[in-house]
Amino acid sequence: MLRTWLGALGALICIVTGAGSAEAQDKVGVVATFSILADFAKNIGGDVVEVASLVGPDSDAHAYSPSPADGKRLADAKLVLVNGLGFEGWIERLVKASGTKALVVTASRGIKPRQMTEEDEHDHGKTDPHAWQSVANAKIYVANVRDALVKVDPAGKPAYEANAAAYLAKLDQLENDVKATIAAIPTARRKIITTHDAFGYFGAAYRVQFIAPQGVSTETEVSARDVAKIIRQIRTQKIPAVFMENVTDPRLMKRIAEEGGAKIGGKLYSDALSGPDGPAATYLDMMRSNLKEFQSALTN
Ligand code: ZN
């Protein structure tokens, strides 16, 4: 009888505190603004952190509208990781509105930003936020995430350092593979069309030319003139393929490919991972999946 009563009390306490178990409560609460950053945090935090992503898989962070539940997540977190470089235009207001006491860290800190010039009609004077598309930059993100976790949970330092070292070794391997794969594609064929200008850091790091009708934000309006210009470029520069992105509408690209006479390449993961069953459920898988798409479209 007493046991039943204690069991019921235990269940009641769980309901009241909203905790599934004592373990979940002990975990370090981390909120990342988008899925790629959340993946870095999971790899470095391991079992002792509970990571949530505000913008989910296959979703567009540029155009995101936060919900009241997002504010609650921030309020409950110990650490908030943001990309910065103007990627999440909505985050500052959300942090303020949430009243969170969490440490807010810009994970791209220390990266050399890609500044847009007069040639980039839509984006003159803007900063390109997609720094994670270069593996060298991803290593800087990882170091920043590691240091941020150590700050909010000093006791976990040895584990965070060990996890980060193991993950950085995987990034080294990935970087070698990206360089070797791109180097095997003739320079003249290294031209890729995407919907929005999300691969500038990849292009600069590995010498691939990316062309996009939209600028560095998916919120840029595309004019008929932009579309006509790209179609001309496809024809005159013999650009082999036009790619879809997981966070943008595919219709525009299908039209451009058709009118320019280019083939449609596979789906690229630009600003978000895929769901858990997709080909890009982690950063490492995302980079390898994009690389495979580039390779098959540009070498065949
Ligand atoms: Zn983007």
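qc> Residues 1-20 have pLDDT under 50 and may be disordered.
qc> done
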